Amino acid sequence: MSHEKDRRDFLKVSAASVATLVAGDFVNGDEAAAQGATRIPEVDKVVITVITDNYYDTLRGSSDFAKRHYIGPGTSLHAEHGLSYYIETVSGGSSHAFLFDYGIDLHGVTRNIAELKLDLGKVEALGLSHGHWDHWGNLIDMLKNHKGTLRDGIPLYVGEEAFAHRFS
Fold first, then answer.
1. What is the pTM of this model?
2. What is the DSSP letter of 119?
């Protein structure tokens, strides 16, 4: 169990780091920063919303640093073997949104986006942590399904690991 928490913490920190780099591109107007960045801008606030993960505990309460979403009787958030985050950074009063990983189930992820009232029209960049199917499997379907909401020409940030040869 602690291994899973370490993995989640690592992915959250990775996602926040990439989101900070992306926010720096927009704040500083330097479009080449993500390609050879050596300077990471400071942000005032980072909000990481878990769109989907391996589980969702409706009985767990909020804490000082985590807000738990309780939808209500008869419904709950979709959980799956997959992962997807919506990340917002605030820097100098400007807000920037970023999608990081996409899960595998279009209907469940889309429903969670609606339940969590996330605005995909604000998304300025996309990111992919690595090449496991439970992180990228829903990417193409999500882009097609939200074509009218997502901006055209959104950059997709990936690392080498995203293209490593895998069994799937």
1. 0.73
2. -
